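Question (not urgent): is this output format expected?
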Amino acid sequence: MRSTGLKLQLVKGNKIVFEMPLGIHEWNQKRLEEEIEEIEEEIGAVEALHDLFSNRTRIKMLCEITKRSNPRFTELMEELDANQKVIYDSLQKMMKNDLVERIERHPRNVHYRLSQLGFASILMCAATLRVMEEIERGLENED
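Got this back:
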């Protein structure tokens, strides 16, 4: 199997703070083991993220909150065509995990917005999809 040549970089200003090759053969074995050990050490966080992003309604809700400017609870219910309990439970879970913030302008005028972590999380989902598409295109071109 040939190299994908793909890598992810996290850049702050002009400085690369994190870089990760996306081809299995492009990894140094020691560094790969360190990354896997870190995942194992943070298994609770990995599990929580997986749980959050394995639910269609929560993903759609994060997308909706991203597209809208601070939507209200009822707007989320209407847009997602979901009942009050589903929206409430999803929002509670996302707030507990610091993905969404509640903005209370008045007790009957509550809005929601993405936190910085929530915004980064939804963008990472988009980036993951793009990476997977690029790898699939590369595999198709090998055939």
